[in-house]
Structures are given as C-alpha cells and as structure tokens.
Amino acid sequence: MKTPFFTCVSAIISKDLRAEIRARELISVMALFALLSILVFSFALELDREAREEAVSGVLWVTLIFASTLGFNRSMAQERDHGNLDALLLAPVSRAAIFVGKLLGNFIFTLIVGLAMLPLMTALYGLALLDGWIIVTTALGIFGFATIGTLLATMTVQTRAREALLPIALLPIALPFLLTAVRATKGILSGAPAAEWQGPLGMLAAIIVIYLALCLLLYEYVLEE
Amino acid sequence: MKSLPMDLRKDTSPMPRLLRVLTVITVLGFAGTLALGLKVAGADIQQGEIQRIFYIHMPSFFGAFTAFGLTLIGGIIYLARKNETWDRIALAGVEVGLAFSLINLLTGSIWARPIWNTWWTWDPRLTSAAIMCLTYAAYLMLRAGIDDPGKRRAFMSVYGILAFVTVLITLFIIRIVPETIHPVIVGASPQNAQGGFEATSGVVIALAPSLLLWLTLMPITIIWHRVRLEARIEAMNQLKLQALSE
C-alpha cells in the first residue's frame, strides 16, 4: 500500500518549509552568497554603465547557478545527516514523489533568493530587471537548475567527496538552461522585439520538459538500497 | 578461476576471432585512410597542406559521438538489466570518447593557428566541444568518488545518460547560437564562417572512408579491447580478495 503521490509530495515540501522557517539554513546561505557574488562581480569587472548592460544577465545567471548549487547541496546533506534519507527509503512512497517533493522545495527556496536578487540588482546596477518576462525567465531557469540539481545532489551526497562534486557534475549538464536563460534575459533587458527572445525562452521551456521527464525516469536509480 | 562470476569468465577468455579480425581491419583501415588523406587527395587551393588535418579532425568528433553514444546505450541497458558488461561498455565509451574528442580539439587547434591566426577562440562551437570534454572528465571523477560498486554502476549509468545532452548540444549549437565562425563542410556554412572549403570529389574520396572508419570500427574495436581489460582488472581484484580471505 503506497502513500498517494501528492500526499507524499506535499508532506515533503511542508517538512522542508517548516525546517527552513525554524533553522533558516538554506535561504540565508544562498542569499548571502548571491549578495557577495553581485558585489564581487561589480568590483572584479569594474562595470560602467555600458558594460553593465552587456554583462548583467551573465552576472545574474552565474550567481544564480552557484547559489542554487549551494542550496541543493545543503538541502540533500540535511536529509542525509538527519537520517531522513533512509527513513524516506523505508517509507512506502514512490521515488518519483520524493523527487518531486525535493525538487519543489529546492525550487521555492532558490526562487525566493532569485526574486530578491532582481530588485537588488535593479537598484545597484540601475537597470530595469523588474520586468514581468524577466521574472518568468528567472522562474523557468531556476526550475531547470532545480530539476537537474535535485537529481545530481542526491547522487553526489552519497559519494566520498560529497559537496565538492556537485558543481563539477552540475555545471556542464545545466549548460542548456544557462545558455537559453542568459540569451532570453539579455534580449528582454535590451528592449529587443519579442520575436528575438521568445525563441530562447521557448527553448528553455522545452529543455525543462525533456530534463524533467529524464529525471523522473532516472531518479529511482539514484535512491537505491 | 571457477569462483569468478559468469560475465567475468566470459570477458576474460582468450580474444575472440571476431575481435582479432576487427583489430587487423581497423589498423589497416587507419593506415589506408591516412594514405588517402596525405597522398591521394590534393592540397587545398587556398589553405594548402594544413587542410589535410580535416580528414582526422571531423571524423574524430564522430568517433567520439559513437563512443559517447555507446555510453548512453550501455547506461540504459545496465539500468534495465543490471548486467555489468554494459557498465564496462559505458566506462570504456567515456574513456575512448574523451580521447577522440581531445584529438578533435587538438587537431582543430593546430588547424586554427594558421587559418584563424589563433590556437583557440571562444566560439560557441569550440566552447560547447570543450564543455563536452569536461562533462565526461567529470564522469571519471564522479566514478572515482563512489565506493560502493552497485551504487557506482547505477549512478554512472544515470550520469552517462544525462551527459549525452552535451554531445547533442555540440552537434546542434549552431542552430541555437548562430554566430559561429566554425565552418560547415557538408551542407550550408554559417554566415560568419571562416576557413571553409569546398567538398570537391578529392575531398570526398579522402573523407568518406575516414569518416566511416572513425564512426564505426575505430571506437568499437578500441572499446571492445577496453571492456576486456576492465573485466580482467575486476577479475584480478576478485581473485586477490579470494586469495587473501583463504
């Protein structure tokens, strides 16, 4: 007798939310990292007005992917350290439900950080990042990172080198998201006609569907005892 | 030797006749395609002798494509059947594919020096090919980091399946990011391409056999040898453990 899919998903999400509200481990680390990254980029690249317009979508996405790597690692490490991973494996729930639950938790936390970054970067860089379509792109891109990141973090957290391996495994595979998201953000930001950035945005959505299907199929093999 | 599992006994048996034949054909074929590229085909009218590197450069990418494809297939079949031979094929595919794609990058670099006047440029196609190499290098690192053999095989099958996405990106990148300077020889070249040349009959005569060889016999023969080597390594480790426990 298996627990129904959505009962399990919502149980995992509400557990993750409650743990986060009490400990504030994930969002605070990701947000602080994102803030530092924005500052480091603006010092390192010595961005003037023109260079900022060129570089800002790159800065946004590089920051987001590294911040999300931190978050995914922490989130899975918590499961492992508190013995929750074993408990989940013992429970009569489908692996896909565990995946979707962790994925949505990761997505929500990273999205909060991503959405907080947009007004901050708008203020610091003086560019109109608070645009409806940029928010859509940010949400889609983060969802993409979260699908692949949840799967890979589940794997790397069970390896010897643990946290160190996730960026190495994740970055090359998440590249399609990065490529299309940067392209779409850049297009929207420069005020180009919609036809120019709708292509990459559509491609981003299509890649998410492909990866999501792959991850749902493959997740049961990375959580085996 | 009786205590070894069935698949190890099979993979460590003396070399099958088919593999011997394949090895001979591959070596002879490689010598033959080199002769075609270096002697039979004429020097390019604009680029001169350096253009001949193309007869290795492009086929080596497709060799890597086949090898990484075998990693993908090996991963899928391993997950479905849990037959360890397929995991060895996947590992061999990564190593051979990595070697082939390094040949691809190196030959491209040597060609680019006189033609583009630089060893390397951050062109979308070059970048995606480099990222493809890094993905499979990450495969080997990740593999080395997992101690439990069952987990290692399952995880690496999953990663091998996902990694193939970077191969597809390298193939199709010019459609996502059109501003590449990398020429396309078969089919229409992108607008900004620099250093393209025409696929004349001489080019085709040298290219077609080389492409065929790199696409099929080269990766398959080397991977087969590598799979047998891996099986021998595993058999040796198991026998060592048995000897120690006796």
What would your notes on this structure say?
The complex is a heterodimer of chains A (225) and B (246). Chain A has 225 residues and is mainly α. Chain A has one domain. Helices cover 84% and strands 0% of the residues of chain A. Chain A is built from 8 helices and no strands. In chain A, helix 5 runs antiparallel to helix 8 and helix 7 packs antiparallel against helix 8. The radius of gyration of chain A is 18 Å and the shape is globular. The two termini of chain A are 19 Å apart. The model of chain A has no long low-confidence stretch (mean pLDDT 88). By secondary structure, chain B is mainly α. Chain B has one domain. In chain B, 74% of the residues lie in helices and 0% in strands. Chain B contains 8 helices and no strands. In chain B, helix 4 packs antiparallel against helix 5, helix 4 packs parallel to helix 6 and helix 4 packs across helix 8. The longest helix of chain B has 32 residues. The two termini of chain B are 14 Å apart. The relative contact order of chain B is 0.17. At the A-B interface, helix 6, helix 7 and helix 8 of A face helix 5 and helix 6 of B.
Regarding quaternary structure, what we see is heterodimer
Strand content of chain B: under 5%
Helix share bin of chain B: over 70%
Number of strands of chain A: 0
Number of helices of chain B: 8
Largest interface, counted with CB-CB under 8 A? A-B, 27 and 27 residues
Number of helices of chain A: 8
Order of helices and strands of chain A: HHHHHHHH
| Unreliable runs of chain A | none
SSE string of chain B, helices as H and strands as E: HHHHHHHH
Provide the residue-averaged pLDDT of chain B. 87
What is the total tally of β strands of chain B? 0
Ends of chain B: how far apart?
14 Å
Total domain modules of chain A: 1
| Portion in strands of chain A | under 5%
Can you describe this structure in just a few lines?
Chain A is mainly α and 225 residues long.
Keywords for this structure?
heterodimer; A: 225 residues; mainly alpha; 8 helices; B: mainly alpha
